Amino acid sequence: MNRLKVPALVGLYLAAIVAANLIITHYGPKASVVTAFGLIGLDLCTRDALASWWGTTRWRKMAALIAAGSLLPYALNRDTATIAYASAIAFASSEAAEAVLYHVVRRRPWVERANIAAILGAAIDSILFVTIAFGFDWQIITAQSFAKLAGCFVWSLLIVWLLPARRARPVPA
To answer: How many CB atoms are closer than 10 A to CB 114?
Structure first.
């Protein structure tokens, strides 16, 4: 991958998670469904692209990325403490589960892999994030899960369209 593309994806990932945490802190649970589509869907796909390109070093780098994505909003606004904590737990848990499924379907084209893995990642992330941040609310969990899946689908198509064809399909993890 071009040396500029990995930092660009890392920057997008961090900008999306920081923005999502700050928006949810300010507007509350209802905003989490909107951010799930536009921002967290992006993060789900970005994680998969980065994991493919990072290969065997992905666990350490993804852990650092998740930690940074949780610490940055807190550094900008201390009121995000609960949201940042919920985000860190949800992202770490969903990333671990999603990585396993992403590996199982490694022979499929990248868009399929990313979206199949997002099914599990979105469900785990939504259940944990909503429950930790706001208390268990089945309606918000369900809405967030579907919004994340739809967002991941849209973002995965954009990622493939923006990257050269041979790089849009990272080597199987």
So the answer is: 30
Domains: count for the chain: 1
Domain assignment of residue 93, yes or no: yes
Instruction: Estimate the crossing angle of helix 81-104 against helix 58-76, to 10 degrees.
Output: 160
Rounded CA separation 88/141 (Å) = 17
Among 157, 149, 126, which Cα is nearest to 139's?
126
pLDDT at position 77 is 94
Q: State the alpha helices, DSSP H only, in 36-164.
A: 41-54, 58-76, 81-104, 110-134, 138-162
Residue 74, both tokens = 């807190």
Inside any domain, residue 84: yes
Nearest-angstrom CA–CA distance, 65 and 68: 5
Q: In which region does residue 37 sit, left (phi positive, over 0), alpha (psi from -120 to 50) or beta (all else)?
A: alpha
Q: State pTM to two decimals.
A: 0.86
Q: Give every residue of the chain whose pLDDT is below 70, as ranges.
A: 1-3, 163-173
Please answer whether residues 37 and 151 qualify as being in contact, where contact means their C-beta atoms are separated by less than 8 angstroms.
yes
Residues in the chain, overall count: 173
The answer to the question of residue 173 being in a domain is no
